Amino acid sequence: MPENKNSLIADKRFQQELAEIKQTGLFKQERIITTPQSVRISTTQTNDVINFCANNYLGLANHPEIIEAAIKALNSHGFGLASVRFICGTQDLHKELEQSIAHYLGTENAILYSSCFDANSGLFETLLDDRDAILSDALNHASVIDGIRLCKARRFRYNHSDMDDLEHKLKQAMNCRTRLIATDGVFSMDGDIAKLDQIVILAKQYNALVMVDDSHATGVIGKRGRGSAEVHQVMDKIDIFTSTLGKAIGGGAGGFTAASHNVVELLRQKSRPYLFSNSLAPALVAAAIKAFELLSNSNNLREQLAKNTLYFRQALQKAGFDIKPGEHPIVPVMTYDAAMAQTMASRLLEEGIYVIGFSFPVVPKNQARIRVQLSATHTQKQLEFAIKAFTLIGHELKLIST
Ligand SMILES: *Cc1c(COP(=O)(O)O)cnc(C)c1O
C-alpha cells in the first residue's frame, strides 16, 4: 500500500466503515464452495449439503449437454475475444445466440451484454433523454435503478405494484415525449410477479412503452417458460425485455435486451456497456445457445420445477410456516425477526440444508426471512428431507406450533 499520508488516512476511514458494517450485523461473509454448482454441494466448512439458495432453477448450471457445448466452443472458437463487439468481437456464435433469444421471446431482435446489470445500465440513456419520462416500480432491481440514474429522463417511482399510483404518475408525465414503464417481471425478495396484465392496459391508455426485466423469470415461469409476460398472456404487448443468462439459462454469465429491430440497432450504436466492454466469451455463448435449445425442445425441466415448487410450498404451509403466497420457486419463509432468520439458517445448515437468511436492508425492517429457491433437479427425497429439517428447526425455534 502506498505510504503517503493521504492514503493512510483514507484507509483508516475504510477500516472504520467496515467495522460499522460488522457492528450493525450487516457484514456478508462468503461461504466457499468446493464443488460445481448443483443441488448437492460441499463447502470448506460442510460436506454434502442440499442447496436451496441458487438461481439454478432448471439445474442447467451443471448440465452435461451445457458443459459439452461450452467445451466444444472452447475448441472451435477459442477462449477469449479480446475485443468489443464492433471491432473484432463478433463471432457467428454471438449472432446465433441473439437470434435464439429473439426467437424464444418472439421479438424482432436481441443484443447480448456481459450481464443483465450491463443490459440495464445501457438501456435507458440510449433511448431516452430529458424530454422523456421513466416510471419505475419502487422494488426494481439495483441495476434497473442504476440504469435509470444514468439517464436524463424525468423519474417517477411508483409504489410497488400499486396500479393506482402508477396511473397517477402516468398522468403527471403526460407532457413528456415518451413514457416508459420499467418493472422487474419477478421481484427477487418476495417472488411476486409484476401485474403486467394491468400495466399493459395503463400503458395503452397513457401511451407508454413497457420494459420488463425478466431475470428471475426467463425459462422459469409461464406455460412455455417465456416468463412473466407469458403468465399474464401479454408477450406481444411488452416493448423491451431484459434478462440474464446467469440464472436459469445455465448460470454462467451474460445478459441481453430483446426488443424491436430499431431499439436493438440503436443499442448497438450507442449503448455504453455494449460499446465499451468486452465481448461475451464463446464458451458462454455456445452454452446459452444449448440452453435455449433445450428449453425450446422440451418443457420437462420447467414442469418439474413447477411441481417441486407446488409441493414444497404446500408442505411448508401445512407444517405451519408463514410463507409469502405465490407460484414462483422463490419461497420466502417469514421469520420477521432478523436474528431469528440468521439462527434458522445456521441451524438448517447443520442439518444439511443450505439456505440464507435475508434481513434489512435487503428487505424492509421486521420482514426478515429465509429465502428458499427451488430447482427442477431437487429430488422428491431431497424436498422431503428439507421439509423435515425445516419442521424440526421451526419447532425448536418456536416458529411453528403444530
Ligand atoms: C440477477 C438480476 C440481474 C443481474 O443479472 P446479471 O446478469 O447477474 O448481471 C438484473 N436484474 C434482475 C431483476 C435480477 O434478478
List the defining traits of the structure above.
402 residues; alpha/beta; 7-stranded mixed beta sheet; 3-stranded mixed beta sheet; 16 helices; 43% helix; binds pyridoxal-5'-phosphate
Low-confidence stretches: none
Average pLDDT figure = 96
H and E order? HEEHHHEHHEHEHEHEHEEHHHHEHEEEH
Strand content: 5-15%
Which class of secondary structure composition applies to the elements?
alpha/beta
Please give the radius of gyration in angstroms.
22 Å
Q: Can you count the helices?
A: 16
Helix content: 40-55%
Ligand inventory: pyridoxal-5'-phosphate
Largest sheet: 7 strands, mixed
State the distance separating the first and last CA atoms: 58 Å
Shape: globular
Report the strand count.
13
The largest sheet has its strands arranged as 3-9-8-7-6-4-5
Would you summarize the structure shown here?
The chain has 402 residues and is of the alpha/beta class. Helix content is 43%, strand content 15%.
What does this protein look like?
Strands 3-9-8-7-6-4-5 form a 7-stranded mixed beta sheet, with helices on both faces. The protein has a 3-stranded mixed beta sheet with strand order 1-2-11. It has helices spanning 5-23, 64-77, 85-88, 92-105, 116-121, 124-127, 142-149, 163-172, 196-205, 228-231, 261-270, 272-275, 282-297, 300-318, 338-350, 380-396, and strands at 40-41, 49-51, 109-113, 133-137, 154-158, 179-184, 208-213, 240-244, 255-259, 330-336, 353-354, 356-358, 368-373. The chain is built from 16 helices and 13 strands. It has 402 residues and is an alpha/beta fold. Helices cover 43% and strands 15% of the residues. The model has no long low-confidence stretch (mean pLDDT 96).
